[in-house]
Amino acid sequence: MDVNVRIFLFLVFATIVSCDRVTSPDSDSYYVDPNRYSQNQHVQEVLRKYSQDPRYNSNNPLPQDILDKLSSTPDPRYGVGTGNYAGSSYRPNRPYPPSGRVDIANVDRYGNSQFGTNNDRNRQRYDVYPEPGRGDPPRQYFENDPQYSLREDEIIKILAQIDISASQQCNINVRAQWDFETNVNDVNQIRALEQQLAYSEFQRRVHNIVDKIDKWDIRDRDLLRQLRYLATVGPSVLPPDQLNRYNRLINDMLAIYNTATVCDQEDPLKCGLRLEDLNLIMARSRDWDELQHVWIEWHRKTGQKIKELYVQLVDLSNYAAQLNNFTDTSEYWMFPFETYDFRNEMEKAWNQIKPLYEQLHAYVRRKLRDLYGPEKISREAPLPAHILGNMWGQSWENILDITIPYPGKNFLDVTPEMLKQGYTPEAMYRVAEEFFVSMNMSAMPPEFWSKSVFEEVPGRPVICQPSAWDFCNGIDYRIKMCTHVTMKDFITVHHEMAHIQYFLNYKKLPKVFRDGANPGFHEAISEAISLSVSNPKHMQTLGLVLTSVDDIPHNINFLFHLAMDKLTFLPFSLALDMWRWDIFNGYTRKERYNCHWWDLRERLSGVKPPVLRSETDFDPGSKYHVPANIPYIG
């Protein structure tokens, strides 16, 4: 492997490098990497505590009466005997103390109470990393709360039981989802939905238990962090009728999105063009009017129709966030990143990259101006969104034929050589495994090879979206992918196996910690691997490139291709989530939804709509993640 690639990967994986596989004498499928965390003393301490401390031994369970007491206590946030929150006196952001009294110790130097609308006691109590200068409210105000003071060893026993149950419930749910995605039929779909609902109900019950544990006297930082994460279950915390309404709103919006069709510009009677057809037009057509027609119609058939539903979803999503002890959904989405200044950090990071993006933007604008003419593209104006090769202007790689710096210096494609050398889908995974083992990481466990789906199964419909699966039992890890012998899929195989490597590295942690360091970290690791594998020198090392392509034109084209895909994606991602943060926190009212969207797109991306827009339009709603209410960053 190229030395530069090794150095790069070492830096990326400095905190998660594992040692060689050691087979347990008890089981052929059990993998132990004893020195996996030797470079991270904090994680080493966590592992020691959870594996050696006798208090964590599940053979010494907490008495059932304590669990029963915690789980059966009425939740004060819901009205007595009803699932409707409308009549409840619970107000997540009510000022504290409730009596209006202010303790002199909790008044700042300007005479203002430190516990205003957004500084409620729930945030004070639950924050994993308290903000500097924010003290705790007087404890006597909460003596009547349905909270239970437990010793730390009792809490640890509760968490040990929850951890076992959570792993079991997760395994049941993941197996049901796997069965559906690898054999799509009505029976499997119903079972997958049932298990998803059951898992959501389990999470809600855990939330109710953990939420009633008094956390005032807990000094163990990791213990407090576990409780905070277990108490955060997202929309599952909603009362049943409101959860049904939440799911119905999302399903209704996605139904509009997934069934939208557009009529052909030249043939108005041809009206069955779906998104996949439109994506091909956006990628291949260079006809200004055709692209504009497709862009306008898709946004009209999707965004416009879901706006009122989305307004309702915002209110309900914010209520769910408040039940999870957050001020609004934007705070809930940022919580896993564990920083109080996440938005500013994102903008600061973008401002460091922005000069490079501006150079790329100016170069692409000149190339497009040469193609479409100065009457359509000004020398200094933002780029029209419909001519960038993508419905949302988030990736520009489809216009490489117009913009490539060195035409004729073809992109590296080792597909013909792979076919010539007799590569098969399984061989691609074996080569990927060797790549990771060469960096002293673990080989894939036996279950991976026996249970993964590498190719389409004859006579059985499979959802072919590549994905890596953790079955929550520390043994079973799989990849599902309809793999073809191509360079693109070869890189994707490495990408997905990087997820498996990450799964293997944190498999001994409690269930609540078995996830990426933050919502974006899993993909960051896998993308780093993808970039390294696609390097021409690495392909030469594998014997898939027989002649040197290490010259300036090829290298510039290769890097330019990456920039047109990866670099252009960053400002779009940032705009999409910043737009939603501003809606959730009340900064942007529904009367300015669309205007604010294009303000952000122009400021961050230098992109504008192809035609004038108004608040009748709802252009961000034409992107899947908006009706699905899924964060884009991470």
TrEMBL record:
One of its GO terms (cellular component) is plasma membrane. Keywords: Carboxypeptidase, Disulfide bond, Glycoprotein, Hydrolase, Metal-binding, Metalloprotease, Protease, Signal, Zinc. GO terms for molecular function: carboxypeptidase activity; metal ion binding; metallopeptidase activity; peptidyl-dipeptidase activity. Binds 1 zinc ion per subunit. The active site is at E496 (proton acceptor 2), E496 (proton acceptor 1), H625 (proton donor 2), H625 (proton donor 1). This is Angiotensin-converting enzyme. Its EC number is 3.4.-.-. Its cofactor is Zn(2+). Pfam families: Peptidase_M2 (PF01401). Residues 51-105 are annotated as: Disordered.
